[in-house]
Amino acid sequence: MPRPTVINAKRQPVPPMNLEELRFWLRIMEEHALFIKAGLPCDNAGLINEADTFQQEFASLQAQLEGVCNERRFAELVAEAAVMVGSFYEYCRRLVHLSLTCQLLGCNFALFLDHISRETEYVRQLLDKLGGGQIPLYQVSSAREAAFWLRLMADHAEFFVHRLDPSERNLIETSSGFAGDFDELFLQGRDFVSMLRGEVQEVPSFRRFLQDVRVSTARLRDFFRASTILTEECRLVGLIPTLLADHMRREADHFLLILALLEKESYVPINDDGEMEYVPLAEQIPVPVVAPQPPPLPPMMPMPPQPPGVRSGFPSIGYSEDYEEDCGNSFDYTPKGSMELKPAPASLIIESDLPEPDTFDAPKYKWGGKWPRPLGTKTK
User: What CATH code is carried by the domain that includes residue 38?
Assistant: First the structure.
């Protein structure tokens, strides 16, 4: 589903999303509605019916895409999808509010609902803004795109952890490691969003960052793929449906596609913060700004004579030299001269058999397409 390359030399209209990409996101939206419906409390028939309606509408739009034979019909379906996605976004945000105000129980975490709403907003921007015909400033918009997806990947790893049975200690540790890795990558991505503002030259460290993200995402994709097989064969203990594991695998695959296009500069990012997503050519060259010089300070006035017992330059606050003694401090306090440090009593020195800090073996996290260890065996 790659889009044509946008040349920075002149202004060109950005092509709309193609048929394959629209089909991909409609399926994701349909499954989101299904996951929400499955986690709602059974006594809340109204919200369940709304989720079921959204699921059916997204499925209907997918079926209509199969018969598209001209651009006009495709544009009509894009417009219908935009309206449906907007309504679904409002529904998700309403659920987030109900969850945060303790008006909604069930099995849907507030962050899970917020996660779905963020993806829905992303799709709405794809449908509404992609045909704007503007020139992207690739690095800062690419950093926003990467940060958006990195947060999604971190959320997926966390959700996976919380749906595993407590007995699956190995898988919990593995998925928690992925969550920590992507949390750190997300923070690094947000740093690049800030640092690359107004930067028109290619930054090699950002290119290396995208490569690091691609490697980590491929490992996470492989993990979700293996988890999908385990759930299909009933070899995984937990509350993870096969569809959910495969759903996460497909989104990781889509992120890998976007990363490949970002590295080739052939993808126009749409993200959750579009304030500097596109920059006109006249604004791409940073202009140095000379800050106005502050007026000179008036000459320092001499300090008035201080009464005895008051420290020079500070108002009197009733501070006494024996403050520590008044508070029951058992340490000796010498107000004048140098302070003499006394060694701690021998009774307070505790011998420890722990190794020195630099001799600790830092936990290593590896993933090479196989489980870190065979299931059911103990690690040394």
Answer: 1.20.1260.120
Asked if the structure places residue 43 within a domain, the reply is yes
What domain count does the chain have? 2
Which pLDDT score, from 0 to 100, does residue 233 have? 95
74 and 204 in a single domain? The answer is no
pLDDT in tens, 330-344: 434 344 444 444 444
pLDDT score of 20 more than 90? no
How far is residue 273's CA from residue 279's CA, in Å, rounded to a whole number?
14
- Whether residue 209 is found in the same domain as residue 126: no
Q: Secondary structure of the chain in the HEC alphabet?
A: CCCCCCCCCCCCCCCCCCHHHHHHHHHHHHHHHHHHHHHCCCCCHHHHHHHHHHHHHHHHHHHHHCCCCCHHHHHHHHHHHHHHHHHHHHHHHHHHHHHHCCCCCCCCCHHHHHHHHHHHHHHHHHHHHCCCCCCECHHHHHHHHHHHHHHHHHHHHHHHHHCECCCCHHHHHHHHHHHHHHHHHHHHHHHHHHHCCCCCCCCHHHHHHHHHHHHHHHHHHHHHHHHHHHHHCCCCCECCCHHHHHHHHHHHHHHHHHHHHHHHCCCCCCCCCCCCCECCHHHCCCCCCCCCCCCCCCCCCCCCCCCCCCCCCCCCCCCCCCHHHHCCCCCCCCCCCCCCCCCCCHHHCCCCCCCCHHHCCCCCCCCCCCCCCCCCCCCC
Longest dimension (CA), the chain: 95
Which range of residues forms the domain containing residue 41? Answer: 14-133
Q: Are residues 64 and 91 in the same domain?
A: yes
Domain end point (choices 229, 248, 281)? 281
Closest CA to 378 of 169, 161, 166: 169
- The one-letter amino acid code at 199 reads E
Rounded percentage of the chain residues whose pLDDT exceeds 70: 62
